[in-house]
Structures are given as structure tokens and as C-alpha cells.
Input
Amino acid sequence: MSWLRALKETARSGLVIERRRLEPLIAIRGAAGLALVIGVSLALFGPVVAASSAFGAFQAAIATFQRSWRPRPVLALVSGASLAVSTFLGYVTGSRLPLFMLLLVLWTFIAGLAWAAGPTGGIIAASNVAIMLVTITLPTSVAQAALHAMMIAFGGVVQAALIVLFPVRRWGAQRDALADALAAEADYARRLRHDPVAHFDPVPLMEARDAAAVTPRQARRRPAELRGSRGVAERIRPVLASLADPAMGVPAEGPERDRVRELLAAAGSLLDAAARAIRHGDPVRLPERAVAALKTPDTGALLTGPPLRAADRLAALLSDVIEAAEGDGTKEERADAEETADAITAGRGRPSTGRHRRPTLLRLVPVVLKSMRGELHQGSPILRHAIRISVVAAVGYLLGSLLPYGHGYWAPMTAVMVMRPEFSQTYSRAVARFGGTIVGVFLATALVQTAHPGVELSAAFAVVCALLMYLLMRTGYWVGQACVAAYVVFLLGMAGDDWSQTVLERVVLTLAGGLLAMISYAVYPAWETPRLRNRLGDWLKAGGRYAASVIDQYADPADRGHDDVRSALLGTRATRVAWQEAVANAQHEPVRHRGLSRAAADDTQHALSQLGRVAMLLEAHLPEGGAAPVPEAGPLAEALRRATERGAKAVRERRVPDWGPVREALKGWDEAERQRGGGPDPVVRNGAGLLLEALEEFSRGLDSGSRLGASDDD
Output
């Protein structure tokens, strides 16, 4: 993609307005906390301290809107405390430019590395640095700076207290994540009726797993319907795929296929009912037709072998979901749900699920530090982002100080707020920030020059802007930035510090900061395109480990647990999502493909998806502990594991993998079965053949795509 086209695409994406579900109660609570902090500060200390405390309350509320599964009060407290420390240290060193520049570079570098802990930490850290550049201009002495810092922290405490005293949808984010996962599987079940090999996006399940992680304190307070449902949902997906796939024994047409379609439709209806109940905390309302479809005895008459096993397992898992979704219902409602579940499964035992633990805040500190240290190596995009943002913040601050406009913090504040580790987000946010600032500053300045508001009216205008920010921030970045720009104008005007600055001066400084951010990425980029082969190799290695772990279960079922299968599956999901995100980012980069064409990316992605799907089908039929072992599965699993590890290395080195060891293992399996006169179960052998086909398709796609890419480069 050319630079001109890349700039057009990113600019267009930055100015998009999306239809999103608004959360007015949460927005009102955040604005009320801000108004309370401003009112108390005005009454006790005056408008200047009120401006500082308002920044603390404003940022603490924004932190609670970030995508995080931690308790919202914790996010508010952390945001307020970190901004207070930043403001005090910034003011103490502000009178000595070299010392302040050193602090600014160090503070911003750490904020850039905070992305290693996730987007929430990175966004909060960057926002604190940006707001610090404003708040350090307000105090007039060290004692005043300490007072301002305390009031900033007080703003975080107030927002945290309001969340505790006036909760809105307790566990709402966790409910939505689990409900989204169940709804995604319901949609998957319906699509399988018409497309037996339909694709399933694992992201909802991954988010549900993240949301299910709890601290010991949270575990004691978690609603009953959020316990265990996710683990059951994880096991439903392979069972649905196995029931629908023709390779598992159900013909493409006929009475057996019609019965499978009925079961899939019933599963979709029941999963949707459970999702609605969990999302809203209501009792489960089961569709009678779906329940009747699962309870009918016709299934055993029509289906045999693997399809019948899959149908039985599906009924058992659906009953677990129904019971878990009734966690907050009355005793009578839970009894009705349990009676229905028992009718479906005929009293079949249910597996227990363990608790997914999340470290407490204090125990998270060494985890975050370890993640940040892990990014301190050449080639790390997080390290490059930290270097870029720290240099740009320093240059922007110096540039703003040299320009004759005054209040030069608008330039570095803009740069720090828009910069992200990815090219597309940085450029789209720079355009959106500039557009939003023009709108917000123009409207706020026009209102100021027309109404000439005093301290109280300026504070009221600032609260209204914050309310609009909280309400509309998810609809589009430029919309939120328009509210932020107006908020800053009114708040600093309340403090008597910024009325003299014109619209043109603020816009010029904002444009300077945005241009610095964009230029820095062009000069010191962290392109995803050259790393696509590494991402693809990681996915191949993880997919091979998952397939090998599943095959290995058949070798000796009595001596093996399923923990290694689960960990391998999670690794496969993580590398797959990393690959998909890298491809999405690379599509907007002004960089040529460097050895991996779009055709090769599409073909290899399809092959690895097939590899994972076949492994998932085999996982749905894992043998019980007392099942007969399949001795040939052990050598095949080892061959798969080693071949995909070598294949991943070959992909990174721009070579085409060879799957000779896997072919030899399968030939040995066939020879052993001929000597025995057959195998114990054709499912695993047929699945092993499909795994080899997927690997060979991967090599063909990589080979043809690489030749095409080489010819394009020439």
C-alpha cells in the first residue's frame, strides 16, 4: 500500500462515528463525581486547586471506562494516585528544565512500556503523562503542589467511592463477556446446520476466559451463574463441530443429517436463552420445542458411533449451561431448571470446573515488571513505541516552549495521547484528535467570548463537557476529543489561566503535536508486515502442539490427563489472534509484503484453520480413562510436534516446510493396522489423515504465494 493510500485509509477510519450502546447511568455517575470534587475544592481552596482536583476526578472516571476485568474502584484509585505522584514530581522539577526533561523522558518511556501489560495500562499511563503536562502549570509553590497532588488523589477516591455506593450493573462486563461467548456458540450452531465446516471466531471465548479470572475476594462475591458456565461453553464448541462434520460419520443428506440439524437448532435456541438470562440476571426461559428435540429418544435410533456420542455429550453440556444460568433464580426456578436438565441427560454426571485465578493488585506488580523487562530487546514493537513516545514528548515540550503562543503543553499532550504501538491507530487517532480539537476548542472559545462565564458557570460547562465525553466516548475518538478539548478550555478558564489563548494558537499547537507523532512513526517505525512470517510460524508451532497433544491422548488414555490439551489450545488461540491482528495492521501499512504475499497469507491461514478444526474434532471424542489405547498414536504425536517445530523455523527462514516424518508415521500406522486386521476406532486414524492434508495444503499455499510474491518484487 502506498503512503498516500495509507494516509487516506487511516484518516477515514479516525473520523468514523459508530452506533454503540450508550451507558447514561455510568456517565452521569462519573460526571456527578467530577461535580462533587469541583464543588468541594472551590469551597475549600479556590478555583486553581479545583482545576487540579477536577483533572484527577476526570481521569479517574475515564480509567473506569477502559476495557478491564478488574474492579472499577481499583482503576479509579490507581489512576488518581499515579496522576497525583506525576503532578507533584513534575512541579518539583519543573523549574529546572534539564531535570524536568529527564523526568518527562523517563516517565513517558515507562508509560510506553506499560503497553506490555495490556492496552488498559498503556492508555492510563499515557493519559497521566499528558494531563501532568497541564496540571504542573497550576501550583505556585512546593506546598501548593503537594496540596494539588492530594486533591488529585482525592478525585480518584471520590470516583471509586461513588462506584461502590452507587453500582451500575454489578459484574456487568463479566456478564456481557460470558453472554457474548454463549451467543457466539448459538450462532455457530445455527450456521453449522447449513455449512458443516463453518468457521468459528474464538475471540468471544478468549474474552470470556479473561473475564472469568477472579481474585480471592472476587471469588466470594461472584454471582452463581458466572461460575462454571465458561468452562462448559468451551467444551460445547468441539462437540458442535463434531456433530455437524461429515467426516465424523453423518451423511451430507438423509434422516441422520436432518436429525443433526434439529439438534443444532435446539442447541442454538438453548444457548441463546442462557445468554439472555446471564446478561440480564433473569431466570432462564427455555424454548419448549428445543427441550423436546433434545429429550426425544429418536436420536439413539438414527445416530450411531461418533455422532451419537457427540449428541449425548452435547445434551449433557447444555444441561450444565442451563443449571448455571439459573444461579440467581428462586429455589423453585432452579428446581425446574435442574428437572429439565435431568430429563435431558438422564442423570449423567457433570465435570467440575476449577477457578481461573487473577493476581491481586500488589501481586500484579512483579508480573507487570517482568512483562516490561521482556520487551527490552531489539525488534520489540513496545520498546520502539516507548522510545518514540518519550522522544516526541520531549521534542513537543521544547517546541511548545519555543513558540510564542504560551501554554505549549498542547503539543506534547496531543502527541502522547494519540501515539500507539501500531501505525494505523497512531495515524487515525492523530487525524481524529486534530479534528476533534478544532471542533471542541472552536465551540468552547465561541461560548466563552459570547457568555463571558464566571468561575461557577465555567465549572458547570466543564462538567457538561465531561458528561458528554463519558457518554459518547465509544462512538468515535474524534467525538470524545472534541469534548475533552472543550473541557480543558473551560477548566483552565475557571482557574483564570487560559482565556488569552486564541483558537488558532491551540489548533496550531495541536497540529504540531499530531504531526510530531506521525513523523516519529515514519522515521522510527515498528511495521507488522516484516514480522508476518514470525507470526505465522508461531501459529504453526502452536497448532502442531495442540494437534499432537490431542493425538497423544489416544496413545494411552489411562495415564494421561487433559491439562496439556487445554494449555495447547489456549496457546493456539493466542497465536492465531496475534496473527490475525498482525495481518489487519499490515493491510494499512505503506510497506511491501517482503516475502509473504496476500495470497500466501490467505492460503496458509486457511490451512492452519483446518489443522485446528480437525484437532478440535478429535478433541470432541477423546477416549475415557478405560478406553483401549492406540499405540500408533504416540509416534504420530511426536512426529507432529517435531515436524511443526521445524516447519515454524523454516517459515521464519523463508523456506517451505516438509512433512516427511508425519507421512512416515502414518504409513507405519497403516501397516500396523493391516497386520492386526483393523483398528479400534477409525475416527482418530481418519482425523490423523486430515491433519496431514492440512499441513500439505499449508506448504503448497506458502510455496505458491512466495513465488508470486518474489515475482511481484522483481
In short: The radius of gyration is 29 Å. The chain has three domains: 24-167+389-523, 172-213+222-345, 529-713.
